[in-house]
Amino acid sequence: MKIEISHVTRYIYEEPVTDSVNEIRLTPRTNYRQSCFHHEVRVEPGTSLFTYEDYFGNRVHSFSVHQPHRELVIHVRATVTTMDRHQGDALPTLPFGEQAALLQGEALQNRYIEYLLPTGYTEESAELAAYAAGYPFGEDGMYPWAMRLTGAIHGEFTYDPEATSVHTTALETLKLKRGVCQDYAHLMIAICRSRGLPARYVSGYHFVGDLTGGSADFEQASHAWVEVHIPGTGWLGFDPTNNAEVDGRYVKLGHGRDYRDIVPVKGVYRGTGRQKLEVKVDVRRLD
Q1: Residues 30, 4, 239, 264: what is their CA dihedral angle, to the nearest 10 degrees?
Q2: Where does the UniProt annotation place the signal sequence (predicted)?
Q3: pLDDT in tens, 262-271
Q4: 228 and 137 in one domain?
Q5: How far apart are CA 217 and CA 212, in angstroms?
Q6: In this predicted model, what pLDDT tens digit does every residue of 82-93 receive, in sequence order?
């Protein structure tokens, strides 16, 4: 599938501000499942961009705007081709006993330690441990277990944009029984890590329009989901918000331990704290 993305972030300040220093993580990855063959970033007021990869391999653009300005606009456009995971040969799998042995082995734990340790969003707690205990691994393996957990979170929690904020933790989401994609992802990550299964937070886009072409006819936004490392198989994507395994409808931007590692746009500036933020996202399928 060929997907075109337009992402516009606009900050409007009540008074002129200066010395704005920013980082953006809005470049689609190129990997085994997707290929980004066009990407452009334009900033108003005009400025130079510095590009590098962070610790997790995410592409970062940084820039500064020092002159006084009342508005900062970041335009990002990208074209990405994606493929469904099930195209081609079947994924390698191992019996549950071998998966469990790998999971408990020092080699796997050392390699993926940052995706096993709790973070501020996925802190350990008795409540989370009790919830996770309701979803033990089964003899059918860890991939079916991850699919069951994805469906359980989708079914037991209510999507509610008014219930949480960008600072909501997995424990708070568990207590509220509601939230948005960021909250669903943090909760699933916390449960996976409590079971000793490496899991990471993914940011990106989800095409939800008509597959025959065109774009969705409602307001769109960026999306978040989870990647789980299945021993003997590798990293696979799961979306508890939509009760789905990641396929050709998804475009990945980056991953990290939690939301804090891959905030799409963040920065500081000198001036008034009174500002307005507008974000417009369009994800459409190209012929």
Answers
A1: 70
A2: none
A3: 999 999 999 9
A4: yes
A5: 14
A6: 988 654 457 888
Range of the domain at 119: 96-262
Task: Determine the Cα–Cα distance for residues 120 and 11; give it in Å rounded to an integer.
Answer: 27
Q: Are 225 and 237 in contact (CB under 8 A)?
A: yes
Q: Is residue 166 part of a domain?
A: yes
Shared domain check, 248 and 268: no
Q: Measuring CA to CA, how many Å separate 150 from each of 99, 119, 155, 183, 191?
A: 19, 21, 9, 13, 11
Residue 89 domain-assigned? Answer: no
**Cβ 1 vs Cβ 249: under 8 Å:** yes
Please give the C-alpha separations between residue 259 and each of 73, 166, 180, 185, in angstroms, as whole numbers: 22, 8, 13, 9
Is 249 part of any domain?
A: yes
Report the CATH number that the domain containing residue 218 is assigned in CATH. 3.10.620.30
- What digits encode the pLDDT tens for the residues 149-168? 999 999 999 999 999 999 99
Residue 283, judged by CB atoms within 10 A of its CB (0-12, 13-18, 19+), counts as buried
